[in-house]
Design brief:
Layout lengths: L8 H14 L6 H13 L4 E6 L6 H9 L16 E5 L4 E6 L4 E5 L4 H4 L12 E8 L2 H4 L2 E5 L7 H11 L4 E7 L6 H11 L7 E6 L6 H17 L11 E3 L2 H10 L2 H6 L2 H15 L4 H66 L1 H17 L3 H31 L47 H17 L13 H35 L5 E3 L4 H26 L20 E3 L21 E3 L2 E3 L14 H25 L9 H13 L4 H16 L7 H15 L8 H22 L2
Parallel strand pairs: 1-6, 1-7, 2-5, 7-8, 8-9
Antiparallel strand pairs: 2-6, 3-4, 3-5, 10-11, 12-13
Helix pairs in contact: 1-2, 1-12, 1-17, 2-12, 3-9, 12-14, 12-16, 12-17, 12-18, 13-14, 13-15, 13-16, 15-16, 20-22, 21-22
């Protein structure tokens, strides 16, 4: 007895797994073929099937080979089941029924009940398999003979035959020499054998003895043509065409007539058959693998179609999801960029050297004139509020866009108002005679009164402009006015220093809080998509496993393995961009010589240069302001896209309401009023009607760079004109952007 084919168990399991992934119906042809070939791969026996239309003498030929009437034969088609003949010490029959019942009988008479067609030529539907065990030297070598029902009789029988042929290592196609070859035989040869990788086929012509001698030669020539046209894969030196007169051969065997058996062609056929089997049987894997290749090709094609279909569905979802995430990421990056710029400007403003440069002189004078609170409210607080709002607006936009944590106000408190303790005044000092004692303002009676107070204010200006602390004159005794002036300067320095330290600390904390606001949650994908991903992964894994097993047995595939799909972490995730901090001048390490030390009433202080008039902005500064405006516009556009991805950006509901209200108040019809606004907007921007959005944006950019009010800060008349012009330009651009 032969051992099972080694190495094919994994291949069979892989084919079964692939079948399960395809969810094939059990009655489908592909499912039946997979089941059959998997069982056949591990079958240790070598199966020979006799195949052909009904009444061609298939059972008669097998009986002749066995030497007795083992199989039922008659003038009508009798074989109603696939009958397998195996080796056994005694002649026995085993029948397996659908309900699991096994019927064992001695002899073969039971076949008349279970294995022949009824009066309507119908097979019994309760029979699963029919096996006959008999003693024969050919069967003892591990060979099984398979007697199949006749083809071209009933569809149910044809389906059974197709299934059984796939499990045959060698097929004997029986031909009727009297009607060679029928249309049905030609179709079966192509569809049932060639297309399914079954090429170990031997043609046996029956009934030649019934032809006239002159007809026999003609038929023989036709048989040779049929055999040569079929590319049988038999061992070299063996023909794939034989003549056997089945009924005379059986009679000769039953009588023991050796000469008659030889003349019937049976002996020559048996000898060739045994030799062919002797060569193919030890390497029966090479016979079975072409059938596996044909079936595996169908499995791979079906798997690939299913994989590609799911991949398209998943990609469609991912593309839509990626668009949403991309919009949010872009918005987050833009908001972070704008926030970083605004915070950088505020940090730069809060830097002590910058505060001293910009405010010390003015604040010291205000302190001397008893106007410090007024100065703090109308100058310092006004500038701080503007910078604070510029930073906070980005977090407001982030909350509106992402709906994460609500932003808190950025509150930077002011230190207490500086308090001065005046030194004792020498009675013999003529303060008005010293340099810089000319008054620069009035209302100083609160401190020293009269012209002396004015002299202190003058001394403040003098000290901050002349830097006399770095001169040799420092060695001389300071005048009383200068001492008081220095106290004012030092008090303001301390005030600004405390304000700077506290403000920078609060700003750093505020930046950290912003990270929880400028972020968004990437939510879990729907369970349906998650399940599809798992199915997709299982299909690809099964496809790749099948490829590997085919490669092991040297079956070449036209497909490439799929790349491994990374495991999906289907959990809520946060996206939070962390851009580099925008570095400004104020973030540079301060020079040690520019730090201030307070030692009692004496101050080691290097005065900054006097404040200068605000220069006109440089082109790059103006460009930066325009880019800042573009950031705002881009955020607004993306908000609109998130609300309605397929729609063009529109104005907010509130703005739309305002427009409708304004239109209602007009005497014109709504459509006419809107048309007039659009026409006027084009005129203001210097464009033709219906100009593209790109042209509108370019025209706006050009006019901003030409009429930005910052260009005319030192030209009051032109400044007013520029402000009016920019108001019109902004209004026109807004109208055309909303169109």
């Amino acid at each position: 007895m032969q051992q099972p084919c080694k190495g094919y168990k994994d291949l069979a399991n892989s084919l079964k797994s692939a079948s399960a992934l395809l969810n094939l119906e059990r009655k489908s042809q592909l499912y039946q073929d997979i089941s059959t070939i998997c069982n056949h791969l591990v079958n240790p026996s070598f199966r020979i099937a006799v195949f052909g239309p009904f009444n061609h003498g298939k059972s008669t030929l097998l009986n002749a080979i066995l030497g007795n009437r083992t199989l039922p034969i008659d003038l009508i088609p009798t074989t109603g089941a696939a009958i397998t003949v195996k080796y056994g010490s005694d002649l026995q029959t085993r029948i397996m029924l659908v309900d699991g019942t096994e019927i064992y009988r001695s002899g073969t008479e039971v076949l008349q009940e279970f294995a022949i067609l009824d009066g309507n030529r119908q097979m019994r539907k309760d029979v699963v398999s029919v096996e006959i065990f008999c003693r024969h030297t050919f069967l003892e070598t591990g060979v099984e003979l398979l007697d199949l029902p006749g083809t071209n009789d009933r569809e149910e029988q044809d389906n059974l035959i197709r299934e059984q042929l796939l499990s045959a290592d060698l097929v004997i196609q029986l031909l009727d020499a009297r009607k060679l070859m029928t249309l049905g035989e030609r179709e079966n040869l192509r569809d049932w054998l060639l297309d399914r990788g079954i090429k170990t086929v031997i043609f046996v012509a029956n009934f030649i003895n019934l032809l006239e001698p002159d007809e026999q030669k003609q038929v023989q020539n036709r048989l040779v043509f049929v055999a040569e046209s079929f590319r049988a894969e038999l061992p070299p030196g063996f023909s794939n065409l034989y003549r056997v007169d089945a009924l005379p051969a059986l009679r000769a065997r039953l009588k023991g007539d050796v000469a008659a058996a030889n003349s019937s062609g049976l002996v020559a056929f048996e000898t060739a058959l045994q030799n062919i089997v002797g060569i193919l049987q030890p390497n029966r894997g090479s016979v079975r693998l072409p059938r596996v290749e044909a079936i595996a090709s169908q499995i791979q094609l079906s798997l690939k179609a299913k994989i590609d279909h799911i991949a398209i569905e998943i990609k469609s979802f991912d593309d839509k999801q990626d668009i949403k995430i991309e919009i949010k990421q872009k918005a987050a990056n833009l908001i972070y960029k704008g926030f970083a710029i605004s915070v950088g400007e505020l940090r730069d403003w809060l830097a002590l050297p910058n505060l001293i440069t910009k405010y010390q002189a003015e604040a010291a004078v205000a302190l001397a004139e008893n106007n410090f609170k007024y100065w703090q409210t109308n100058t310092l607080k006004k500038d701080l509020t503007q910078l604070q709002l510029a930073a906070v607006k980005w977090l407001d936009q982030a909350y509106e866009f992402f709906h994460e944590e609500r932003p808190q106000d950025l509150l930077i408190p002011f230190p207490s108002e500086p308090q001065l303790i005046l030194p004792s005044k020498s009675s013999n000092t003529d303060d008005l005679s010293e340099p810089g004692s000319i008054a620069v303002g009035g209302g100083i009676g609160w401190l020293l009164g009269g012209p002396v107070g004015a002299a202190v204010v003058g001394s403040i200006s003098y000290l901050l402009n002349k830097n006399i602390q770095n001169q040799d004159e420092q060695l001389a005794k300071d005048s009383y006015n200068q001492e008081v002036a220095k106290l004012c300067i030092t008090a303001i320095e301390n005030y600004l220093s405390g304000f700077s330290v506290q403000g920078l600390s609060i700003l750093t904390e505020y930046e950290q809080k912003a990270e929880k606001i400028i972020c968004f949650e990437i939510s879990q994908e729907p369970l349906e998509i998650t399940n599809k991903r798992e199915t997709w992964q299982q299909l690809q894994s099964g496809f790749n496993q099948l490829l590997q097993e085919l490669e092991k047995v040297k079956i070449v595939s036209n497909y490439q393995p799929y790349k491994e799909i990374p495991q999906s972490t289907n959990i809520n995730r946060k996206y939070s961009q962390q851009p580099e901090r925008v570095k400004t001048f104020s973030q540079k390490e301060p020079d040690i010589n520019q730090q201030h030390e307070n030692t009692g009433t004496r101050v080691k202080f290097v005065s900054p240069p006097p404040p200068k008039a605000s220069p006109s902005p440089r082109p790059e500064e103006l460009e930066a302001k325009f880019r800042d405006w573009e950031l705002n516009e881009e955020i607004a556009r993306m908000k609109a896209e998130m609300r309605s991805p397929k729609a063009c950006p529109q104005t907010s509901p509130g703005s739309q309401t305002d427009k409708q209200q304004n239109t209602t108040q007009s005497n014109k019809t709504p459509n006419q009023a809107q048309t007039d606004k659009i026409t006027r907007a084009y005129d203001i921007l210097g464009l033709q009607a219906n100009a593209s959005q790109a042209e509108v944006k370019q025209a706006y950019r050009t006019l901003v760079k030409k009429w930005h009010p910052d260009l005319f800060v030192n030209q009051p008349q032109l400044l007013k004109q520029a402000q009016e012009k920019m108001h019109l330009v902004n209004e026109a651009y807004t109208i055309l952007s909303e169109k």
